[in-house]
Amino acid sequence: MKPAAFRYERPRDVAGVLDLLAEHGDEAKILAGGQSLVPMMNFRLARPEMIIDIGAVSGLDQVTRNGDHLTIGTRVRHVDLERPDFDGPLNSLLAVAARHVGHIPIRLRGTFGGSIAHADPAAEWCLLAQTLDADVAVASARGKRVIAAGDLFKSAFITSIDDDELLTEVRLPWLGPDWKTGFSEFSRRAGDFAVVAVASAIRLADGRIAEARIGAAGVGATAIRLTQAEAALAGQPLGPDAIDAASELASEEVDPRGDIHGSADYRRDLVQALTRRALS
Ligand SMILES: Cc1cc2nc3c(=O)[nH]c(=O)nc-3n(C[C@H](O)[C@H](O)[C@H](O)COP(=O)(O)OP(=O)(O)OC[C@H]3O[C@@H](n4cnc5c(N)ncnc54)[C@H](O)[C@@H]3O)c2cc1C
Prior knowledge:
Bound molecules: flavin-adenine dinucleotide
Distance between the termini: 45 Å
Helix content: 25-40%
CATH architecture of the largest domain: 2-Layer Sandwich
Structural class: alpha+beta
């Protein structure tokens, strides 16, 4: 399959991207790693008249710690997060999740921001953004704004990023040494999208759970927070009893739909098993 004809631009800076987006709006598409957009164009599920390739735009490919945030530039590739250049619980969470994103050739080209903008309901980065309450920075010729992850993901493949906006960076809260993180995923074959994935981040104080964040992907149109399971953990010591109770609640609070990859009941069972593994 070949894509429909399109015009191609490769600006060198953000201002150039924003000018093109302002002029062409919904007729244009940003090309980042191309790992989702190009297949969609080849299948003619997307027919943009203009492609704006951001591969040469400088300043969007850094991972930096800014006080209480980790800032991930939109062009940071999946592979760059397999061995993050910093220590701590966020390191292990990103590293484990990164290795679940597709296969090595996809991770070498695909980008963090591209995955967030694409908003696949089973995507690992969308799950982490939702679980950790990420802030997503976007820019347009009209100005800049920051969208909380909870307001960003509207439905499967639909976000609140406007047609003339460029996602520039994603800010994750920095997790200090009192946090413990976990990630567990089930897919049919290595490299496939998750059937279900669960991410967790737990802050301990005096041996008890002071704060809990648990998210699940593959159970709806967007990744979701498992708020009942989170609430059940608050104030508990992090041990088998609390983990079992939270995992059971997690499976009860999701409302997945069945498809060719698994029935609704099967996905609910996966949520329980994967929540237990992530928390353990
Ligand atoms: C075989 C296969 C298996 C895969 N498995 C997985 C998997 O297990 N988990 C997973 O998460 N992903 C998986 N992917 C998808 C992969 O992670 C993509 O890299 C990712 O979804 C999109 O990132 P990209 O940089 O390639 O974006 P592109 O394909 O270039 O763009 C995707 C969409 O986002 C928009 N976009 C990109 N960047 C921006 C920006 N900065 N601002 C605004 N809009 C933007 C584009 O216009 C387009 O609509 C798989 C892909 C393939 C082909």
